[in-house]
Write a structure and sequence with these properties.
The complex is a heterodimer. By secondary structure, chain A is mainly α. Chain A contains 15 helices and 4 strands. Chain B has 2 domains: about 160 residues, Rossmann fold (3-Layer(aba) Sandwich), CATH 3.40.50; about 80 residues, no CATH class. Classes of the chains: A mainly alpha, B alpha/beta.
Chain lengths: ~375, ~250
């Protein structure tokens, strides 16, 4: 077990508390650096989605995890970023400019959403952000002169400093990874400064935050703006990755996926956003695999245990019908959320911390260590 | 002119007069206690001063400035800090970050500087931390720096709330029942700290308290309230002997 002896205030400020962190993150970075050259192109493509979803997750984490303001409208912020990119690209605006413009515009929209949200809390805020997302979806479908309506928009291959960066190549992967890493570092910087602490203060007690001199309204708007801006940046990358965007890609289901990212990852740490993104992106091929192979596997099992061929084929077609039913994905997501909220409210990262502690304290770990620890739930006391 | 002054302060909830034209003044460097039976309007006065409620009528002055219309978050900036009767700490944060929020009114960095964590932010953080450490030493909280509030006992939380208020380097501190829920020893410690705050840190203290031992030990003056009105004002012993105060507590 490692004991940290702190001798300087710097010890509590630096991002890596001790050399072990540098080593493990170094190994991770080295793996990520060689990934596009050793993994199959399909997996690299999934990794790009992990990066994009994790970036959105970090943005949503600032708002929901650290400021305590729920949002089911982040698909709309992603859409605004994506459409800004597609629109500006038509006029040959270079990538760095429309990338930043996408983030900036989304940030401004986020701040505007933040203002009405000042008076709403909890479930009402969720409803307000859902309505915002519906409005944006509708605007994208109707404002045909800019968005081409339901026809959607084609996004040309990204070109950076005269170089083409195809969305399936390693260069695009490194771009997305770089954006994710910079976002995480920026967010960590924010969280160790007065603004980040003000966010956490608002989450835990608005009354106390106010009496300590935190301008609660201003910081809520700031949180909305930062969260939206990060999501907008991810939106630009999202547009390039898909190379075609249309309004029906930015629906409520996508917003729910973002909520899943942070809920399953763990809403108290940025690690959660990344772990949640990995989980969400990697569950998709798993579900496709189940859909294709599950009927065969189950009917095979029945056949082995003596079912005749007619019964086996009947079972096969029944299972196949269930597996390809509409909305099954949404239902599975719902079940996953419920199970996590009930049995592991700290998410994957919380589970990882428990596993780590088990080995650190071995053989003295007690199951009850985390029993009494309360998880963040916004109480309805005075605000 | 007095240091802090409330003039004809009233707070009505419909027909209920929680605070009914209360006037009092606090002199610089004194410890003034407000006592009274439950529901007398003591905490409501605090909530009026820290602008959680807007007063129905009346004015509040601090250092000759009218602060009745100031937004709630400005009150801390003026140098008035407070604690709460039912502890309002940031539960899912460590004690250190709770205390650092107390330094909020002294932070001067911009958002973009913080995103890049420029040297100015880093230097600011160290200044904040040094101040926080002074408060930690003053209140003997060294053992809890990295502990989450949600895992700490009530008595400790009470002290941490006081520490958070002190971290903002206030000129006037409002203590809402500092000894409620504390045992005899902890109450003793609290009374020493309150006196030290006055003598060593030069902070003016306005305090709501039920424990008369603590009130007698630390207060320079006492105000007794009942049904939102001032019954008596004066030295602790004067107020306790006042016939109206005796009647309010024991019945006529």
């Amino acid at each position: 077990m490692r004991f940290l002896f702190k001798t300087d205030y710097e010890d509590d400020i630096r991002l890596f508390p001790h050399s072990g962190y540098v080593v493990s993150y170094g190994i991770l970075l080295a793996f990520l650096a060689i990934a596009p050259f050793v993994l199959s192109s399909y997996l690299v493509s999934q990794l790009v989605f992990v990066c994009i979803y994790a970036t959105v997750g970090v943005g949503l984490m600032i708002l929901t995890g650290f400021t305590g303001q729920a949002s089911l409208g982040h698909a709309a912020f992603l859409a605004i970023g994506a459409y800004t990119a597609a629109y500006l690209q038509q006029y040959n605006v270079p990538f760095p400019v429309y990338f930043l413009a996408g983030g900036l515009l989304t940030g401004v929209v986020g701040a505007l959403v933040g203002f009405p949200a000042l008076r709403l809390t909890g479930i009402y805020l969720v409803i307000a952000t859902i309505s915002f997302a519906f409005i944006v979806e509708e605007v994208l479908a109707r404002w045909e002169s800019v968005t081409h309506g339901n026809e959607g928009m084609r996004v040309k291959t990204l070109s950076l400093f005269g170089q083409a960066v195809p969305q399936n190549g390693p260069a695009f992967y490194f771009l997305c990874l770089g954006v994710l890493i910079l976002t995480i570092i920026g967010t960590l910087n924010l969280l160790r400064s007065p603004t980040g602490r003000a966010f956490v203060a608002i989450r835990d007690s608005e009354t106390a935050a106010r009496s300590m001199g935190v301008n609660v309204s201003l910081y809520k708007v700031k949180s909305f703006a930062i969260s939206a801006a990060i999501t907008g940046l991810a939106g630009v990358l999202f547009a390039h990755k898909l190379s075609f965007i249309s309004p029906e890609m930015f629906t409520l289901q996508l917003s729910i996926e973002f909520i899943i990212v942070i809920l399953i990852g763990g809403t108290f740490s940025l690690h959660g956003a990344v772990l949640g993104a990995i989980f969400l992106v990697m569950i998709d091929p798993f579900l496709t695999y189940l859909k294709d192979d599950l009927p065969g596997i189950i009917s095979g099992i029945f056949a082995t245990f003596g079912a005749d061929s007619v019964t086996a084929s009947k079972i096969h077609s029944n299972v196949a019908a269930i597996a390809s039913a509409n909305g099954l994905k949404g239902a599975i997501y719902g079940v996953i959320i419920v199970l996590f909220v009930l049995f592991e409210p700290l998410g994957l990262y919380g589970r990882w911390l428990k596993i780590k502690l088990f080995f650190q304290l071995f053989p003295l770990y007690k199951r009850a260590t985390f029993k009494r620890q309360k998880i963040y739930v916004k109480s309805e006391r005075n605000r | 002119m007095s240091y802090f002054r409330a003039e004809n302060l009233s707070l009505h909830f419909g027909g209920l007069k929680a605070v009914d034209s209360v006037s009092f003044a606090v002199e610089k460097g004194e410890i003034l206690s407000i006592i009274g039976p439950n529901g007398a309007g003591k905490s409501s006065i605090f909530n009026l001063i820290s602008r959680i409620y807007p007063p129905t009528s009346g004015r509040i002055f601090f250092e000759d400035q009218d602060i009745t219309e100031q937004p709630a978050y400005d009150i801390a900036g003026l140098g008035i800090a407070r604690t709460f009767q039912n502890i309002e700490l940031f539960e899912n944060a460590t004690m250190l970050s709770n205390l650092l929020v107390g330094r909020h009114r002294h932070s001067a960095t911009q958002l973009w500087q913080e995103l890049l964590f420029l040297p100015s932010v880093r230097a600011g953080e160290k200044v904040h931390r040094r101040r926080v450490e002074q408060v930690i030493e003053f209140l003997d909280l060294e053992a809890y720096r990295d502990k989450l509030i949600s895992g700490l006992p009530y008595g400790v939380r009470k002290v941490i709330e006081l520490a958070r208020a002190l971290c903002s380097e206030p000129k006037l501190i409002l203590l809402d029942e500092p000894s409620s829920g504390l045992n005899v020893e902890e109450t003793d410690d609290m009374s020493f700290w309150i006196r030290d705050m006055k003598t060593e840190l030069g902070i003016t203290v306005l305090m709501v308290e039920h424990d008369m031992t603590l009130v007698n030990r630390v207060s320079d003056r006492v105000i007794a309230l009942n049904y939102g009105r001032v019954l008596a004002m004066g030295s602790p012993s004067e107020v306790q002997r006042h016939p109206d105060v005796v009647a309010a507590y024991l019945g006529a």
